[in-house]
Amino acid sequence: MTDYTPTHVGSVTKYVMVESFEITPADLAARGYEISKGVMIKETCFGLVLNGKEEEVDRIVTELRKIDPGHIFVKDRGFPPGDARRCRANLGGARPGYNGLEFEMSILPYVSHGLEVLNSKDEKSVPSPEDPLEHPLLDIHKLKKLIDAQES
């Protein structure tokens, strides 16, 4: 087992993921470069990877999210970019966790839509928990008949 001494002690790494037709990872990167102070910024297909002192990374994240709060998402990453334990260049393929990230990216449009509905001025578009259901619940006996019909 090799001894690993982290080179980024005291730093944090975060993903900034963009789900938008208006903002691209390149747009985020350009803005990030304008306001970064010693934070490493890596542009990816889904957004950015930021690595640096926690206060600086958080400051940049706050500024980037102002661009489009309903379509920019942030996630902690456990390893800095290029870390030999996680870098795909060293592992020979997609890095561990990439498939999970790919799945998360596929559901972000739904989260964005939900945020847009919640933030809309039309309060009627958001049903309150007290509202009765628009459609009555399926009767249990009818459900059983449907299941039995599928089995035969």
Summarize the structure.
It is built from 5 helices and 4 strands; from the N terminus they run E-H-E-E-H-E-H-H-H. It has helices spanning 25-35, 54-67, 88-91, 98-119, 140-151; strands spanning 11-18, 40-43, 47-53, 72-77.
Describe, in plain words, how this protein is organized in 3D.
The protein is of the alpha+beta class and 152 residues long. It has a single domain (11-125), classed as Alpha-Beta Plaits, CATH 3.30.70. It has helices at 25-35, 54-67, 88-91, 98-119, 140-151; strands at 11-18, 40-43, 47-53, 72-77. A hairpin with a 3-residue loop joins strand 2 and strand 3 (47-53). The longest helix has 22 residues, at 98-119. The chain is extended and about 65 Å long.
Topology summary:
Elements: E1 11-18, H1 25-35, E2 40-43, E3 47-53, H2 54-67, E4 72-77, H3 88-91, H4 98-119, H5 140-151
Antiparallel strand pairs: 1-3, 1-4, 2-3
Quick one: biggest sheet? 4 strands, antiparallel
Into which percent range does the helicity of residues fall?
Answer: 40-55%
Contiguous helical run count: 5
Task: Work out the number of β strands.
Answer: 4
The rough form would be described as extended
Would you tell me the overall average pLDDT?
80
Q: Under the CATH scheme, which class?
A: Alpha Beta
Question: Which CATH architecture would you pick?
Answer: 2-Layer Sandwich
For the record, the count of structural domains works out to: 1
Q: How much of the sequence is in beta strands?
A: 15-25%
* Helix/strand structural class: alpha+beta
Given as residue ranges, the uncertain stretches (5+ residues, pLDDT < 50) are: 1-7
